[in-house]
Write a structure and sequence with these properties.
This protein is mostly helical and about 180 residues long. The chain is built from three helices and no strands. The chain has helices spanning about 10-65, 75-120, 130-180.
Length: about 180
């Protein structure tokens, strides 16, 4: 059981619930927020990066076709950079999605640990093996989330660099097209 306050079990239970809510509920809210963020990030990332790189990859050859010019390998290089940017963006979104999923799992594990800590403080028995297992899982998920988030950020940066390089090559291609027309 848990310590009695003035031998009043109702008051002891109320104290336990209040401490439980203060220690555990914030972790559930954080887990829910990570879940929402994971979905929103994935959706926003897919829309922005795919629109940017795919639009450029489609527009450049279309522009060359409309002007009836053949810029050669430069066009293929620019389109290749945009496509590579698309691939990097997909990988970044994949990692960001799983990073947020691991953060959510870590928050749930931390809420479990906090709930058992509160229970232990109130004299309730706690499965120590499960308690330590969840603490270890929390730390592992939290560490994985950080690694995945850093990798995703690096891939997004690389995708942006691919887009910039593609634009630079494409600007050379469009200059060549304009000279060919004149």
């Amino acid at each position: 059981m848990f310590p009695m306050s003035d031998n009043d079990p109702h008051k002891a239970r109320q104290t336990y619930r209040e401490e439980h809510n203060v220690a555990v509920e914030p972790h559930y809210r954080v887990a829910e927020a990570f879940e929402r963020a994971r979905l929103a990030y994935a959706l926003t990332g897919f829309r922005a990066a795919y629109t940017m790189n795919a639009g450029a990859a489609v527009a450049l050859p279309t522009f060359a076709e409309i002007l009836n010019v053949n810029p050669g390998g430069s066009l293929a290089t620019a389109v290749g950079l945009f496509v590579f940017g698309l691939i990097l963006t997909f990988l970044a979104n994949f990692l960001a999605y799983y990073s947020a999923e691991n953060s959510s799992a870590a928050s749930i594990d931390l809420s479990y640990v906090e709930a058992r800590r509160v229970a232990r403080n109130h004299g309730r028995s706690v499965d120590e093996t499960e308690f330590e297992s969840r603490k270890d899982r929390y730390e592992r998920n939290n560490r994985m989330s950080g690694i995945q988030a850093n990798l995703a950020a690096g891939l997004v940066g690389s995708a942006i660099l691919c887009f910039i390089a593609g634009v630079a090559v494409a600007s050379g291609v469009t200059n060549w097209m304009c000279e060919a027309i004149n």
